[in-house]
Structure formats: C-alpha cells, structure tokens
Amino acid sequence: MIDPLAPFIEFGFMRRALVGCLALSLSAPPVGVFLMLRRMSLMSEAMSHAILPGAAAGFLVAGLSLPAMTLGGLGAGLLVALLAGLVTRSTVIREDASLAAFYLISLAAGVLLVSLRGSQIDLLHILFGTVLALDDSALWLLGGISTLTLFALAALYRPLVMECVDPLFLRTVSRAGGPTHYAFLGLVVVNLVGGFQALGTLLAVGLMLLPAIAARFWARDLGGLIPASMLIAVLSSFGGLSLSYHLDLPTGPSIVLAAGALYIASMLAGPRGGLLYRLVRARHLEA
Amino acid sequence: MTRPDRSPAGGAIRLDALTLGYDRHPAVHHLNGTIRAGDMLALVGPNGAGKSTLLKGLVGEIACLDGRIERGVAQRAIAYLPQAAEIDRSFPMSVADLASMGLWRRAGAWRSLADDHENVAGALSAVGLSGFERRPIGTLSGGQFQRALFARLILQDARVILLDEPFTGVDARTVADLIALIRAWHGDGRTIVAALHDLGQVRAHFPQTLLLAREPVAWGATDLVLSPANLARATQLSEAWDETAAICARDHAARPHDGQDAGHAGHGHGHAHHHPHPGTEGAA
Hints:
The structure holds 2 protein chains of 2 kinds. Chain A is mostly helical. Chain A contains 13 helices and no strands. By secondary structure, chain B is α/β, with parallel strands linked by helices. Chain B has a domain at 1-73 and 190-284: 3-Layer(aba) Sandwich (Rossmann fold). In chain B, strand 6, helix 6 and strand 7 (191-195) form a beta-alpha-beta unit. In chain B, helix 4 packs across helix 5. The radius of gyration of chain B is 20 Å and the shape is globular. At the A-B interface, helix 7 and helix 8 of A face strand 5 of B.
C-alpha cells in the first residue's frame, strides 16, 4: 500500500519541494487563466524561452547561484516583454509576431551563452529545474512571488478584465490600459522565473497553463475559473511529487504530467463542455 | 490664426481644418466647424466617406494628420460606441458586468460597485434587458448585445456621445427603443454625433446633419443638407485611394473655407478632382 503522504512526512526536502510548488500553484494558474482568456496561451511558452539568456548569463557570471540566475532571468524576461509590447503598440506588428521575433533572438543568445561555458548537464539543469534542491532563499523567493502576484492581480483585476474584454473601451475611458498590460506581462515573467527554480523554464509553463485550461471545463466565470485552476495546480503538485518519489521519476516532468492527466480528465468529464457531456444529449428546456 | 484661442463651451467640439486619415492619405479632409453643445448631429455619407474616421478622431483613437480638434470636455469623458466593437464575446463575463464597465470614470480600478446595483439594473431595464443581468455576454443575440452596449453608454453618463452605425443588424423594434433613448439623451442636453445610413431615420430624428464624402459636402439643418443635389455630389466620391497623390498644398492661411474654392488654386491631389470643394457650413 502506497501512502501518498509518507514522503512528505519522512523527508525534509520533499516538504520543501511541496511548499515551493504550492506557492507556485497559487500564483501561476490565475496568470494562466488570463493568458488563456486573452488567447495568449502560447505567449508564456515564448516568454519561458526568453528568460533563458538571462538565467544563462547569471550562471556564467556566478555559477549555479540562485540570485544571479533569478536576476538575470527577470531582466531578460522583462526586457523581452517590454520590447515586444513597445513594438506591438507602436508599429503594425501584432503581439504574437513581435514576441516570436524577440524570444527567438533571446533563446538563441541563451543557448550560445550556455555553450560558451558549461556542459549539456548545466543546460538541462536550467531547462528542467531543481525542485528537490530548494533551499531557504528559493522558498522565500517563491513565497514572495506568490504573494506579489496575488496582490497585483487583485489590484489590476478590473482594468485587466476590461483590457481583455474590450481594450478599445478601456482606451477611451482611461490611460490604465498600457500600464496594466505591462504589469501583467511582468507578472507572467516573474512567475516563470519563480517556476524555473522549481520546475525549470520549460515546465514552469506547464503549471501556469495546464491548470488554467483544465479549469475551463469546470467553471464558467472568472470567479470560478481562478479558484478551480489553483485547486488543480495544488493537486498536480501534490500528486506529481508523491508519484515521483514512489516511482523514482524526475519531479518536474511528474508534476506537469500530473497536471496534464488532470487536464485530460477534465476534458472528458468536466461539466462545462466536457466530451462525455457532449455525447449525452440533455433534454432541452421549455424556454 | 485669426480665431480667439479658447476652448469651446462644455459639450461642444470645434474642428479646425481637421484632416484625419491613414498612411498620410486623408479620409476626412479639411473639415471646419463646430459641433455645438447639445447638438444631435447625424453623420451621413457613402462608404469610405470618413464617418467612422471622424468619430475615431473625435474620441482620440487616431491622431490628426493636420488641423485640430478642440474639445469642450475631457477627451476621456466622451463616450464612444464603435461600429465593430473589438469586444471578445467569448470572455466569461455577465451582462451586468459588461454594463458596469460604464461606471469606470466614477469607480476606477478599485472603488466598490456595491451601491450601483440599482443603477446597473436601471440601465439594463432602460434598454429592455431586465432579467439578463447574470447571463454570459456570449449568449446574447446581436441586437441584445447592442442593447447591452447602450446600457453601458447610459452608465457612462457622458456629456458627449459618439455612435458609429449603432443600429446595424438591429431589429425595428429595438431601433425604435434605442432612438427613444438617444432622443432622451438629447433632451438632457448631451451632445450626440451618430454615423447613420438610413436617411429616413436621420430626417425623422436628427435636427442636424453633416454630409461627408471625404471632403465635407454640407453641414447644417437636416432637410437642407439632405437635398438631392448634395446627395448626388456625395455619391460621386471615389473610394479608391490615389497611391500617387501629391502632398496637399491647400493653403492653410486661407482659412476659413466657407467660400467656394477659396485658396484652392495650388491644389494638387488627384482624388479631389471628382467633385468641387463645397462650403462646409454652407447650408447652416
């Protein structure tokens, strides 16, 4: 009989990993919900690549140092977000195209930097994370990012929703649209940087988007989508860590695969447009 | 500049040799005149005449190519209903929330909307959407959605309201309801500018009309402006751009343009030869 709680009771590093992932599970999925609703889901994938050269530069300067790689990642991510936003708002290029251009440049620069020093293993480290080696400073960082994200989303909520639904209207009544947009891109970057401590740059996107997309099958409005996405992320983190311990699997992919399994289950059984509900034709109402 | 440089009174908008357009090609060309406070003005003209462009310019959505707009109210106090709203109707939002967006100027990003439930319900009931408060916006029909946007306009409570073809795809009964609403706004002394295609509607409800065909054709009392001669002139407009058009050399010092072709001697753009330059306020 496998006890899912056993590894967390037994080992301190598993408890640390769980705390770090739970912090990320509360902040990344709401950001993912807004990305999904703005049809910018893949934008976070691009951003996760954009972070790479910064993290690599930090790694080159200071070795496997958390502050250096975090600062580098934040710097590179925010720079790409800002440049892409500027190009979108001042030229004919649309957001997806301008972001694609900058993230490709950024990714290539990152791979180049990593290959200058360091080996394949170092690159894998950056790409796939170190969830079982979260030290105190990493946990503080994840907790801080989570707190910041939740407060920022609360403060930006109204203009952010308006910018998603009717950007033209927001432009005509307020100047808040631009700052809101950049602040939101900043939150995406901050959460991806937080996520890459735990899961690596590539898998951080998984904990941001999969719970958000899965939540769409359970809730109809934002008030339901956001808590549902958080719950799915928490379950994925817990289940993924537990499985990775018992089956001796790498943790980052386990967590994201757990989220993926919940997504597929939601897609099949979710009450809001899930596949199984489509198969059964419910009797229509009178009016 | 011979005019005294003071802002027009609240709710009025003065257009001063206003040229608006895209890629330097004018879509509204050298428009002079004043939309007075409390005017109920119809914008009429063929497709491509610059009606939408003028409204976008008035609300500040596009920059002036030349000339200027003097607004008697803050730019962000102008309510604007675009022709094709960029609204994402798949977004999970209720009808009441959509209408509540109109409260932004009062409530901003953080102030509570708890005391405004009655206002929102009142606005929705005024457009015949009582009972739709909790419905997601994606489930509304086209006409119902347009009503919801009018509810948002009601809550915006603006001195100046710009409407770009507000009745497209809306059934006759809804149009009648919405026109009654617009007339009530007019009664409140609000300034209303609406781009419309239905000349019957314009004649029946709008005291003032600006007939545009890229160049202003006539501006004034509706029955004078919508004369057969003016309408014929407006339809001569060519929708195509002249890619090789020369830089407009119309002498800005020769304003105001209320004489026929005053100061137009050095005028060199190709598209302008289809019709004579009219007096902008000739019919007023």
